Amino acid sequence: MAGKCDLSVSILTTSYNQLPVLRLLVASLERQTVRDFEIVVADDGSSDGTAEYCASKTGTNLVFVTQSDEGYRKSRILNEALKRCSGDYLIFLDSDVILEKHFVEDHLALRKSDSFVCGRRVDLGPEITVSEERILAGDFDHIWNPDLLRSVLNKKTLGIKRGLRVCAPLLRKLMRYDRPIDILGSNFSAWKKDILAVNGFNEGLESYWGEDGDLFIRLRNSGKKAVNAKGMCVQFHLFHKRREPNSEVVERITALVKNTDYKWAEKGYRSRF
Asked: For residue 270, is it within any domain?
């Protein structure tokens, strides 16, 4: 039986015309060992039936937040979602991932005050077939299914070590999973109050890439500690062609990493709310 958690939790996922993979993500959320959470879909103006699908999930605690499609405005819809979510603790996902059944439980186990949790993912090869039926059958609760192992041997699926769930503290330390890492947008969690304290997501970023790194820098500079979730919070990233970020955005984030005074996004959550 799915368990309950001891605090209010919201799971936020961004989506833009990705209904087929969003359905897979929701299927993996529906079989978590901890189920006492709301799902907030932050939609950047999809026209593929995402709104209708979310409306049909009447038996799920799902909140749909959308905006008009006026170009890349991911930070803006994330701030809208922050306003709508009811949880004190927030777990962030991309829509093109599927989750091992302990994913939410592990994020909650790793949470600490004045900290945020940073996870990673297994990158699935293009030949891996993923369906709601396979997810609900538990095929991605481990790495021991034949097509996944073949894909690893053929060097199509990458980062398979990240699919091994390791919970023992001593073993995690021996594997150096206690070393801090940065935020990956498809797998991180934080206290809502800590995100709001640095003014949410930076809406000044209007080109692909950088929202997560920008938030990481501000959380770090405000004294919050990164907790490494490697070996826990296991997720699998569905294959697609990688989109390359604008070089100017990369240079900006790279420069910000060295700026220890950057703690507040001028154009952020409180700019509109």
From this structure: no
